[in-house]
Amino acid sequence: MDRTTQKTKSLDMTEGSIVRLLITFSIPLLMGNLFQQLYNTVDSLVVGNFVGKEALAAVGSTTSIINTLINFFNGLSIGASVIISRYFGAHDDEKLHLAVETTMALTFVCGIFCTFLGISTAPALLRFMDTPDDVFTEASVYLRIYFSGVAGLLIYNMGSGILRAVGDTRRPLYFLIFSSVLNIILDLLFVIAFGMGIAGVAYATIASQFVSAILIMILLVKSTENYRVSVRDLCFDRFMMQQIFTIGCPVGIQQAVTAFSNVYVQSYINAFGSGCMAGWSSYTKIDSFLLLPLQSLSQAGTTFASQNIGAGNLKRVKAGTRTAVLLSSGIIFVFAVILWIFAPQMVALFNQDAEVIFYGVLFLRLCVFMVVICCPAQIYTGTLRGAGDAKTPMFIMLFSYVVFRQIYLFAAKQLAHNPYTIGFGYPAGWIVCTILMTLFYKFSGWESRVENISAKSGNNS
């Protein structure tokens, strides 16, 4: 297919204004991430207002468990996106199609695996976190239902990852908006009209996720472009799997272990009771929205770096990284100011209980400006992944978010066990991660390794 024709729906990031390309790519991606985040957040809003603070605490306590399994798969999707982006940038249509077919075959297998693993381990993980009795039953119900339909989420995420790898962020966004609106309608219907409680929001979530999965698969199967999915061509190509796992496994391990470390954080929070748990849940949902612009620009940076490395333009890769750091820092700071000012009103959206609002505001104002510190680390991580180095960010983040954070939390519990010191566990890890990632990006000489990749890509095309 003519490359010019493809550009109507995909985005070639190897030429043109860097600022314009990053923003053009990131805005639909940001909107997609926003609506994806709405899934679990709407669940919290509905149960917090129509069921009670114990139900809000139950949904919030499941987040780190869900992310532990889901994030490993998301790491594989990042690995697949990097490989697909590289072949797209190198104009190697044959390998691009083979990478897509291998990616989708892996997705279906992972969907089955995550379903059974999630259902079987959910109660044990809740007990491991010392989940209080007044929260345990509802949290267990939510997790079992959620994981029974997790395959829909995985299929949608990988399918949209394929499209993002070639610069198409708009169509996955349209599907996600539709399914998110559907999720809101079903949440309200199942909880308010049918009185299904926390089970209702879980059923609403998995139903909506399957709708988005079906829509993205129809698009990929019926596409006439070179990244289309053909059921009869699905395969497990050894070379493609090796490339995907080389990049994706370190990312997946890092994200899964980091999420699992948050299980420990949650266990520290659980010690302060359901009111504090609900306040922490409200804070983490708000904080997740604040992180979305940064995550979107980091993902844009991965695709930008990968395409330009495929095109052999290292200078443009570094210029794009600098631009993304400045953009993300400015955006996060502005939103942090707004959230700090309106913290009580934001937390009250989830629950009006005075104790919940107190703890939610405490955590939000304690951490919100510290998110700016994350910007260089996240952007550098995106660039390094796009350059094929997923292991270094993995080791740095595992040390910062797991090893250091757990040491900090253990020391805080011994020396000053209160919500302030425990809540600062997140920013403490962010600070260490940014310092280490910046030092590596500036002084490790990763550019020389990228030049070798660019040379090979040039020879293959």
How would you characterize the overall build of this protein?
This protein has 461 residues and is an all-alpha fold. Helix content is 84%, strand content 0%. Helix 2 (18-50) runs antiparallel to helix 3.
Core attributes:
0% strand, 461 residues, disordered N terminus, mainly alpha, disordered C terminus, 84% helix, globular
Number of helices: 18
Judging from the principal axes of the Cα atoms, what is the shape? globular
Rg over C-alpha atoms, rounded to the nearest angstrom: 21 Å
Oligomer: single chain
Indicate the proportion of strand residues: under 5%
Elements, N to C (H/E) = HHHHHHHHHHHHHHHHHH
Class per helix and strand makeup: mainly alpha
Mean pLDDT across the residues is 85
Largest sheet: none
Please give the number of β-strands.
Answer: 0
Bin the helical content. over 70%
Which ranges are low-confidence, i.e. pLDDT below 50, for 5 or more consecutive residues?
1-8, 457-461
Query: Alpha-carbon distance between the termini?
Result: 16 Å
